[in-house]
Amino acid sequence: MRPVLVLLVSAAWALTGAQYYYQGLMDYLENRLLAIEDRMQFWHEQSRRYHAEVQDFKKLTAETVDGLRSEHGALLKDLEGAALRVNRVEREMDHVESQTSPRACAVAADRVVEQGVWGPEERRGGEEEDDGWEELPSRVSDCVEIISAIRSVKILKRVGGPKGMWTRDPRSSRVYLLNGTSGDVVYQFNSVRDLSRSPGVTGGRPIRLPFAWSGAGGAVYNGYLYYIKQEADADVQVVKYDLLSGSVTDIAMFPAEGRAAVYNLNPETVADLAVDDEGLWLLYADGEPNIHLAKMDPATLDIEEIWDTRCPRENAEAAFVVCGTVYVVYNTRLASRSRVECVFDVNGVAVSEEAPLLYFPRRYGAHASLKYNPEEKQLYGWDDGYQIIYRLTMKRKLLV
For 375, which DSSP code? Predict the structure, then answer.
């Protein structure tokens, strides 16, 4: 009986200890839950405060953005107004320069007498009347026009890289584009309008050449592409390519020694082919500081005659030929306004007193190429990737 009593007392004591233990555990858990609730309440308060601050910041940011947009619109209007005023001033400067411009350095012996603008009516009348002109068999060119001013400029579009060449065949409406300063693909467009409507150079018909072209000195004349071929450790050559049959018809050796650039500001162009009323010309450097000019037979690529224009290559960016007269365009290292500062007439009739200093309208950068079209009497220019057309005003010249 006594052992049973001891067992019951022990069991009761163990049960009482377990109750105390569980009670303590419950008290501990309750305190932890209360602490967690306090922390969660604190987090809720912090979240509400952060949310309110974010809303205030968002509102302030929206007000600031609205203010910036308003200021941006006002600034944009001011810039557009300034651009209009600058364009107006440039047009006025171009007009003043065309009326009272200084004279370019012209290399010649005789004089040019200005007879005013030779318009279409005067040209038609000139076919019936003599006008006192006397044909000189010793002259290289029978053309009687010289540039008096740049009448207008049209920015067609921007395709290709910063440098390249584009021109129109004087005997057709087709336009040809050579993108860059080297490559073997020429893009053909049916007209200037087709080029303006195309998404880029890929909109034209690609013509792959058998030899790569070098520089921006190519020219198109009577269905043929004339371009410069230059390879490493090889002579520089002039290539004649038939655009209709897609074959090379002739190749001529470069007439100069060395590979000096013809224009100091465009070192990739070692020679520049030009077309005018009298045919095909080649501008190149002969290891001297001046630009040389060669008259070429477009059929055989034979050199007919060579001149030292005495126009310096330094700071020259491009040149073109009109009626046997070379116009060299100059600029600066930091692109400024392009201008004709040197004129050379193969017939010896242009002089400094009669050759105007022509300024090109300020646009984007410097010309990589300028190609004259004798049928349209306008220049096709490549300026920092922009294709530009310059329409020229001509005047007639008279020998005295």
Answer: T
With H, G, I as helix, E, B as strand and everything else as coil, classify residue 99.
Answer: helix
For tokens 């006594």, name the residue.
2
- Summarised one tens digit per residue, pLDDT across range 150-179 is 988 999 999 989 999 999 999 899 999 999
CA distance 261 to 293: 14
What mean pLDDT do residues 63-91 have? 81
Span of 3-7, 135-139, 346-350 with lowest mean pLDDT: 135-139
What is the 8-class DSSP label of residue 234? S
Question: CA 356, CA 342: separation in Å to the nearest integer?
Answer: 10
Q: Model's pTM, two decimal places?
A: 0.68
CA–CA distance, 87 with 361 (Å, rounded to integer): 9
* Rounded CA separation 209/105 (Å): 39
Structure token pair of residue 243:
């655009």
List strand residue ranges (DSSP E) for 297-384, in order.
303-312, 316-322, 325-330, 339-345, 367-373, 378-383
Helix, strand, or coil here: 358? coil
Nearest to 270 by CA among 280, 279, 259: 259
pLDDT tens digits, one per residue of 194-244: 999 998 888 899 999 999 999 999 999 999 999 999 876 667 899 999 999
State the Rg of the chain over Cα: 40
Higher-confidence position of 115 and 63: 63
**Buried b / exposed e along 152-190 (16+ C-beta atoms within 10 A):** ebeebeebbeebbbbbbbbeeebbbbbbbbeeebbbbbe
Residue 256: closest CA among 287, 229, 297? 287
| Separation of alpha carbons 182 and 177, rounded Å | 12
Closest CA to 255 of 271, 240, 275: 271
